[in-house]
Amino acid sequence: MSFSCISEAEDLEKTGFSYTLSLINGKYKMVILYCLMEFEVVRFNEMRKYIKTISYKTLSTMLKELEADKLVHREEYPQIPPKVEYSLTERGKSLIPILDTMCEWGNTNRMT
């Protein structure tokens, strides 16, 4: 079964597909979302350990963008040393079926 969200006259950049890609596009955004899906609540340094190839600056930038797009929630605790935790919002959780499907596809089609 195939579903197309593009009519013949519609501009590809104005589709739901394009909008979704604009939110999760980037080398690490889907990895961050998947990490939060798996571990639910993650502190910054924990996430940095899970995603070994990401720099601190890139992780910080990606988390800020995901938070601005209301996919990730940032909880800051007023204590010393500072404690900040990240989790998926309800909007972010709505991407879980898409991420799961991508994972299943990758496991099925991966060349080993």
UniProtKB/TrEMBL annotation:
- Spell out the InterPro entries in the cross-references: HTH_HxlR (IPR002577), WH-like_DNA-bd_sf (IPR036388), WH_DNA-bd_sf (IPR036390)
| Any matching Pfam family | HxlR
Q: Which UniProt keywords apply?
A: DNA-binding, Transcription, Transcription regulation
Per UniProt, residues of the HTH hxlR-type domain are 5-112
Q: Name one GO molecular function term.
A: DNA binding
Q: Where are the transmembrane segments?
A: none
Alphabetical list of PROSITE patterns matching this protein = HTH_HXLR
Q: Which domain of life is it from?
A: Bacteria
Q: What is this protein called?
A: Putative transcriptional regulator
